[in-house]
Amino acid sequence: MSEHKTPSLGQLEMAFEDNRLAVQLYGEFDQNIALIEQRLNVQITPRGNHLMLKGPQGAIELTRTVLESLYDLLEQGGSVAIADVDGIIRMVQTRDAQLPLPTLENGGRVRMAQIATRKSTIVARTPAQDAYMRSFAGNDLCFGIGPAGTGKTYLAVAFAASLLERGDINRIILSRPAVEAGERLGFLPGDLKEKVDPYLRPLYDALYDMLHPENVERFLESGLIEVAPLAFMRGRTLSNAVIILDEAQNTTAMQMKMFLTRMGENSKMIVTGDPSQVDLPPGQVSGLVQAVDLLNGVDGVNISRFSFEDVVRHPLVARIVRAYDQQTQLPGSRK
């Protein structure tokens, strides 16, 4: 006969010195508190700047870490949105796996990686995002591999924007291969750049989130930010820059080699893509898949992998990605 042990129940009272910050911590209509209760299976009763926690002892400890980490973020001048609460919860729930990283201090509060510009500050929302953001500083070539909605490209552009604003680099170069999901560029009006521009829109969106619109326009006009199809990279040496290649799963092996060998002095490259979404002709090897296999373990190269658990868009996106992943794993299914 197997025994099922009931988790020991407990309670804990917490107090926060600053009433104003406590209100921000709880969220509008206590929405942050409600999310923590739902995700960590605890009961939280706010009374002014005091909170009473009740529930399984392990859940109470996790909840205390979450609340202390969020309050610490507020004390540093940051803000706490519902997405930040979700991110802290994810970090704390995976703390055992994350201890080798600087994400968590043993027995302490969560220290999430951040990227800041004058306009906004981006905070890691998942352990994978945290490791990815930290990898930028210590590696000249970083790969971000995984499904849509995990922040691969967005975080890369944010990092590049922060370096440009600080004067650490002279320019940002954003590129994508001219291969598209089911459409044909030849039937679109305009020259090659005009045909490809709509496919580069996600890169523009990230720029406008990180930099003031007038700066983005000025940087684009002056060439400090260049958005170009991959074909325009051939024959160039790119120095003092951050070069980002998006949708890299649609590069051929030759195109990927050409791109990676464009790196010049004081430059960093970030390559993002989803190997499960290759739009190349049947039988053609993805340059991204080959590069990850060849460069794994090479000094100065970091490969960050994301899964559906790292999706930070609408919660339904993660469930959609999971459903498609499960379908492709069924016997007889085609990837």
Mean pLDDT over the residues: 82
Number of helices: 13
What portion of residues is helical? 40-55%
- N-to-C SSE series? EHHEEHHHEEHEHEHHHEEHEHEH
Radius of gyration over all CA atoms, rounded: 22 Å
Number of strands: 11
Strand-residue fraction?
15-25%
Poorly predicted parts: 97-107, 181-185
- Characterize the main sheet: 6 strands, parallel
Q: Structural class, judged by helices and strands? A: alpha/beta
Question: What would you say about this model in short?
Answer:
The protein has 335 residues and is of the alpha/beta class. Helices cover 41% and strands 17% of the residues.
Keywords:
single chain; about 325 residues; three-stranded antiparallel beta sheet
